[in-house]
Amino acid sequence: MEVSTKLPVVPPKLRDLPSNVRHHLGWWVRDRFPNRKVVREVQGVKMVLPWPHRLPDYAGDGPYGQNLVRLAAALSEPASPVTVLDVGANVGDSALQILHATDAQILCVEADPYFLEYLHLNVDEDPRVAVVEALLTPDPKTEATTAVRTGGTTRFAEGEVGDALPTITPEALREKYPSFANLRLIKSDTDGYDVELVPAIAEAWGGARPVLFFEYDHRLSRLAGNDPLAVWPRLAELGYRDVAVWGNGGDALGRTTVADIGSRTAPLEEKVGIRAQTYWDVAVIHQDDLAGLAAVEQLVPAAQRL
To answer: Could you provide one GO biological process annotation from this protein's UniProt record (predicted)?
Structure first.
């Protein structure tokens, strides 16, 4: 495998442009070479990425993505590794960073063949990681056939291009991987399908009461045909109560509950003539999970109200 470890040189005239213009110009150039493999160090962890991937740009030296890593570390116990289900594993960046921070066993699920190549390159040599090549869906009749890629992420839609992999339900996944029966943390990033998928996964692993961490995006949820507000009563029925919220840059915004969060989502809504540019990362804790609540308290104290 031939990869590049050199960062592109920015010509002097381009350095004078505003940073957002430079970013978009750089993305335009990189998008012309979708199959170029590069090695990048992202927040202290080396990984193989497609050159157009936005992760290095978003992460920088800031807190982007570190909320999940810190949550996994806070949930770890001295006697056993923390077990994680990584849905929408992409190139394996979350798995790599969690393993860099703490001892873990991670089940990565990815359905886009393009990103699967990089996922395997990044995690296959680590026995603590298992990869599932499938689209995880609560409906066994789902027929998502087209991977719609933007920057460094994928959503699936009906179409004529058959580049999505076979589907698997949460129940079937749990039965196939019994070593993850006591799942501790679920991470889901599926571009709008999280609000339907996360409750189904939580129900399948109901006895374990795992902490739920997912991307909560009103625009993408509706684009996928899902009601983003419907997720909260479904999680309440499963016994989930406390919610920690981060902005899309990784900064902690505060704490709330599944009963109250729906009334606080105005920043995520589209406005007339203005496209919403934000989403939240949320961690949701079962009412009986005292250890999970203590772990979240370390990251987003209850006194910090949303």
So the answer is: methylation
pLDDT string in tens for the chain (306-residue length)? 556 555 555 455 545 545 554 555 665 677 777 789 999 999 999 999 998 888 888 887 788 889 999 999 999 998 889 999 999 999 999 999 999 999 999 999 999 999 999 999 999 999 999 999 999 999 876 655 555 555 445 555 555 555 667 889 999 999 999 999 999 999 999 989 999 999 999 999 999 999 999 999 999 999 889 999 999 999 999 999 999 999 988 999 999 999 999 999 998 987 755 555 589 999 999 999 999 999 999 999 999 999
For residue 269, give every residue at least 6 positions away whose Cβ sits within 8 Å of its Cβ, in sequence order, or none: 218, 276
The model's pTM is 0.86
Into how many domains does the chain fold?
2
Residue 25's identity, in one-letter code, is L
For 23-56, give the DSSP string.
HHHHHHHHHT-TT-EEEEEETTEEEEEETT-SHH
Strands (E), 99-236: 104-110, 129-133, 135-136, 146-150, 153-157, 167-168, 185-188, 211-216
Token match 């960062």: residue?
Answer: 7
Residue that is last in its domain, among 30, 54, 78: 54
Token readout for 242 is: 């406390």
Q: What is the Cα–Cα distance from 108 to 172, expressed in whole angstroms? A: 15
